Please model this.
Amino acid sequence: MLGSLRVRLPLVFLAGIVFAAVLTTAVSVKLFQDFARHQALANLSHEANGMALLYSNAVKASYGNTKAGKSDDRQAPTFASPTLEQATGDKIYFVGPGLFPGQGFVGLKHLPSNTVDWHSGKSKTFEFTPPGADRKYYAVSNPIVNEGIVIGALIVATPKTGVNDLVAALVKRLAIALLLGLVGAAFLAWYLSRRIVRPVLQLSDAVDAVAAGSRDVVVPTKAPGELGHLSQRFAEMAHRLGEVEEMERNFLMSVSHELRTPLTAIRGHVSALLEGVIDEPEQRQQSLETVAMETQRLDRLVGDILDLAKLDTHRFTVSTEEVDMGTLVDQAYERFREEARRRSIDYRQDVRARPVIVSDGDRVLQVVGNLLSNAFQATPDGGRISLELAQQNGTVHVAVEDDGPGIPQEKRERLFRPFISESGSGTGLGLAIAKELSAMLGGRIDLDSEVGKGSRFELVLPAAGA
Model:
């Protein structure tokens, strides 16, 4: 169960949220704790400063209220520390000798002299546990000065628990917010996991189906983001696999047919010659010529397959030489003259220029021959085929045009794949080899076709050579 993606994704999502929430809470609590402590000490400092000034003025007034040097005429302040404590909510202490001789500390709680260094005359911040108390206090001491002499220090203190209570209240509220956030995050994680995992599971089922041999698979079409892209590419891959299998079947059927036809003819003529059925010299010569022709046909088929294998593995090499394109086109034209005459095809040649380029003449002739062979396969008896040669803008153009059935737009790209033959005859290797060879020669093959009116294949080569 835990190994399932639909379970692991929400758990990882929630774990990340919990980690971020705990970290954020810890930082927030620490910051709030420091802020609360700073505010508490600031308030204490403000109160200690004001009360110390109050008592300093009272001492100054008392010491100045003497008659004939009699100290018993000094008056204690009219305010009392319990009243101040009630007004501020803080505790007030005194450290040092008595403020008013004969009157003690006038109600102030006295602390030992070592509680704080009051002799320095500086305000100090510290923590301490007052006598009889069971908890620590934040405290601020402020000196009481009379005529430039420090006579003690007034201490204002507040319990630390007051600050801690504020922090505890904050933690409680953060915990409630975290719990509510986790509930919402859990629902969101569950929803997102379903959105993400469902197309993944569908893709997994499709992969299993493809592995089992099925190519007609259903992939998620509304998957978000990268999953949608993956689904689209997987569907294309399954489609291409289906095409590859179709190509393999076409290859087996085409090659079997192409091999069986000449082999049947060869076997028949050889058997007739061996058995003496054919004894006339002219008939023997015709049989031998038929065997030679069918042998050449087999050789071309095997050569095409080997050429395609070399092109696919990038082990094909081309030579460089000066090629008279006019002479080359003449040779290609003559190869098919007899077939055109036999099938009553209007076979024409239009040479507008006779450039000389640096290329591989044999391979250029092979490409042009393959284009012509494809045109003769697509053109019915009594049709029209033209072979053109021209030069323009630094390129050489060899075009083969026919008035066959034409090629629909959706079939043009796959036409150059091996073992795809729209005419139903041949192995479907000619155009595939022609395209690869033209690219190796530094050129390309352009196709212009209209259904019902024919097709035009144009080999474009650089005039300066590849």
About this structure: Residues 66-74 have pLDDT under 50 and may be disordered. The radius of gyration is 52 Å. The first strand starts at residue 91 and ends at 95.
